[in-house]
User: Which sequence fits this backbone?
């Protein structure tokens, strides 16, 4: 019987556009257990396979493949290709995306169910599946149909509530943004730019934040300082690390850090600083 690959306690989330084998190698070397590919990777999963092939033991996950744009039959075939060549090192994360990006967006819950049904019929084991989820209904579905639930853009208070609902039934693996920068204004500016556009303009994320008690005034004008601080851990490396461990303290099994840097800054030094602050050993 398949088992869910061991993601470790900490992982890295990185958009697919500029994700390279070298970044995957550095992620593994730094001691992170998993690398999540964001930005809706296509169904061929060639990027995921190249990252696995470039590393020795790092688990690679998609965070997430968009159900509206990726054919599930092609996706299942790609999963089996990777699993045959690199057994136990891949988690297939899928999700519904958001309505603003898809003209044909309709019946999201039924679309998720049907998509999972197809992957199941194609022999993709639930233990190797992750599902993007925010609301209670999809959280419950993830606990029933997949091995990992992957909430995105959530504070630790969300993780606490999600753990109360599905803890112990599925690996709870939220994403959290971090900025290693001690100047508060600079750190918030970097974080706000990645939170406000596009997420504070997408109703599924806004609705989730409102369920947690955030107000219209918090969401307006690209997000209040308090909201940005809740969604983006910033300060020195120790403060950034504390923002991640808060999710583990709230009941997460794994937390993946999206390390944000100024557009002109080198990404890898921040990655290494965070790993050191977390006490990771490659």
Assistant:
């Amino acid at each position: 019987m398949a088992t869910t690959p061991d993601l470790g306690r900490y992982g890295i989330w990185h958009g697919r556009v500029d994700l390279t084998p070298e970044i995957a190698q550095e992620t593994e070397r730094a001691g992170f257990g998993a690398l999540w590919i964001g930005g809706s990777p296509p169904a061929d999963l060639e990027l995921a396979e190249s990252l696995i092939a470039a590393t020795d033991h790092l688990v690679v996950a998609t965070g997430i493949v968009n159900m509206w744009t990726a054919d599930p039959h092609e996706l299942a075939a790609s999963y089996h290709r990777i699993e045959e060549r690199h057994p136990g090192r891949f988690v297939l994360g899928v999700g519904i995306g958001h309505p603003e990006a898809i003209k044909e967006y309709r019946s999201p819950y039924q679309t998720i169910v049907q998509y999972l049904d197809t992957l199941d019929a194609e022999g993709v084991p639930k233990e190797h599946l992750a599902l993007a989820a925010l609301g209670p209904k999809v959280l419950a579905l993830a606990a029933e149909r997949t091995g990992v639930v992957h909430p995105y853009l959530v504070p630790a208070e969300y993780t606490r509530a999600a753990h109360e609902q599905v803890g112990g039934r599925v690996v709870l693996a939220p994403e959290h943004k971090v900025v290693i920068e001690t100047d508060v204004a600079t750190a918030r500016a970097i974080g706000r730019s990645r939170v406000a556009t596009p997420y504070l303009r997408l109703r599924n994320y806004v609705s989730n934040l409102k369920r947690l008690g955030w107000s219209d005034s918090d969401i307006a004008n690209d997000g209040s300082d308090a909201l940005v601080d809740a969604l983006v851990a910033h300060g020195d490396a120790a403060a950034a690390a504390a923002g991640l461990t808060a999710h583990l303290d709230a009941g997460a099994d794994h937390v993946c850090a999206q390390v944000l840097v100024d557009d002109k800054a080198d990404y890898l030094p921040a990655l290494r600083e965070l790993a050191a602050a977390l006490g990771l050993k490659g």
